[in-house]
Design goal:
single chain, 52 residues, mainly beta, Rubrerythrin, domain 2, 19% strand, globular
Length: 52
């Protein structure tokens, strides 16, 4: 399981824990979030994330 960080605001998405506060179950891969998913903190798209 990987972690991805938003280059704009620093939000960290961890595939292992997901983001239950924003409705994403633990174990959800970054790819599975879909192309329309945006950072829950700054609303930037997936293209602004890189693997941590």
């Amino acid at each position: 399981m990987a972690k991805y960080v938003c280059n704009v605001c620093g939000y960290l998405y961890d595939e292992e824990t997901g983001d239950l506060e924003h409705g994403i179950e633990a174990g959800t891969s970054f790819v599975a979030l879909g192309d329309d998913w945006v950072c829950p903190l700054c609303a930037m798209g997936k293209e602004h994330f890189e693997e941590a």
